């Protein structure tokens, strides 16, 4: 159900961190935005009987794949676009610019269209034709291909495309995919929704994809805002797109030499500095857990989710859902998961998926299915580590 965005959302002025011995390094202050903007939706929080049975605990799914753009990106990027327009002295001159080969670009286009403003997306040469077609169909004014990587596409957009736009008299607004306080604040509100939907119950775990860190930061801020003291955040990545985990193991913010994972939506070679700070402090306190699965496991998560809940998600989301199968949740957390625990999985969605891709993943990685699933029993009770 679409809802009006709140007339104010938390915007971080400074840094807030509930994982640093209970103190904060800044403050959160509401900033006004248009009450008529509908750049994102409140999404359902549902309990999955199938995934709960497979995981051996209570699994709740936050269905962010139902956002206008098909992913959670609509929250943070929609929030940034709405605030940018509200701050502008000449909103009729605003033109949004996003460098993304996928979900962030789609979110920018959907938000811009909702706000009545044009948008341009610059994508790297590696972006698939399917994604370019989706961005154009969503209403982008222009889609430009440039550079071999997102970094090169982003540089070209900021130093060439946006400068030309400003020379034409436009107010060119840069829309980063993850590393911005307004983006984090938009994602932060997701936890406020979850808290209300749970009726005051505090979950044991919230599992989310890490990627560049924008969602992870927003969830950490949200957990602090609602006052959850014992909730762990499980930050998931795939091998080859694991910049956060590599940084934590190295003890310093580290840049990957490149992205080798097929989960390209997680493909940030360097996470936001704020994400590393929160993860480092949270890991030391036990409040944050960083875990990495293979592309094959992420693919398995996608097709098992399609079987169990009849929904399609891309690899960057499947890595979270794979936790429910084969005891992976316990392995990731490094502890026993009890039957009465509540685990919230952010079903972040994504548009880089279709039924053909799902079928091919299953053909390639079908060895990950247990015998019960292969024989048509979905889900397999044998996957529950505690026999639930």
Automatic annotation (TrEMBL):
Keyword Transferase: no
Catalyzed chemical reaction(s): L-serine = pyruvate + NH4(+)
Pfam families: PALP
One Gene Ontology molecular-function label: L-serine ammonia-lyase activity
Cellular localization per UniProt: Cytoplasm
Known EC number: 4.3.1.17
Disordered: region residues: 1-38
Protein name: L-serine ammonia-lyase
Pathway linked to the protein: Carbohydrate biosynthesis; gluconeogenesis
Domain Tryptophan synthase beta chain-like PALP per the UniProt entry, residue ranges: 40-349
One Gene Ontology cellular component: cytoplasm
């Amino acid at each position: 159900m679409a809802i009006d965005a709140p007339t104010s959302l938390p915007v971080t002025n400074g840094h807030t961190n509930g994982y640093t011995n209970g103190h904060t390094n800044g403050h959160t202050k509401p900033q006004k935005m248009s009450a008529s903007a509908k750049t994102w939706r409140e999404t359902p929080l549902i309990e999955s009987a199938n995934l709960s049975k497979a995981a051996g605990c209570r699994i709740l799914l936050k269905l962010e794949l139902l956002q206008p753009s098909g992913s959670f990106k609509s929250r943070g990027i929609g929030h940034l676009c709405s605030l940018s327009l509200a701050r502008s002295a000449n909103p009729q001159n605003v033109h949004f610019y996003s460098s993304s080969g996928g979900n962030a670009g789609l979110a920018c286009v959907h938000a811009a269209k909702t706000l009545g403003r044009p948008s341009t997306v610059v994508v790297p040469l590696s972006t698939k034709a399917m994604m370019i077609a989706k961005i154009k169909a969503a209403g982008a004014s222009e889609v430009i291909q440039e550079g071999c990587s997102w970094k090169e596409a982003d540089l070209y957009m900021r130093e060439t495309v946006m400068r030309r736009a400003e020379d034409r008299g436009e107010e060119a607004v840069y829309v980063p995919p993850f590393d911005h306080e307004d983006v984090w604040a938009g994602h932060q509100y997701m936890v406020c929704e979850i808290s209300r939907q749970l009726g005051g119950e505090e979950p044991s775990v919230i599992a989310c994809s890490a990627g560049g860190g924008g969602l992870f930061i927003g969830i950490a801020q949200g957990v602090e805002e609602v006052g959850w003291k014992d909730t762990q955040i499980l930050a998931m990545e795939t091998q080859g797109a694991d910049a956060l985990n590599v940084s934590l193991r190295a003890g310093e913010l580290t840049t990957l030499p490149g992205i080798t994972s097929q989960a390209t939506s997680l493909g940030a070679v360097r996470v936001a500095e704020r994400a590393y700070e929160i993860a480092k402090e949270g890991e030391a306190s036990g409040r944050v857990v960083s875990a990495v699965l293979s592309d094959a496991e992420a693919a398995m998560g996608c097709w098992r989710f399609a079987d169990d809940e009849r929904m399609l998600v891309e690899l960057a989301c499947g890595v979270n859902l794979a936790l429910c199968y084969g005891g992976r949740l316990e392995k990731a957390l490094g502890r026993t998961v009890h039957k009465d625990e509540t685990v919230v999985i952010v079903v972040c969605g994504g548009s880089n998926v279709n039924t053909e891709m799902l079928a091919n993943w299953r053909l390639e990685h079908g060895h990950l299915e247990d015998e019960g699933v292969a024989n048509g029993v979905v889900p397999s009770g044998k996957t529950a580590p505690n026999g639930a």
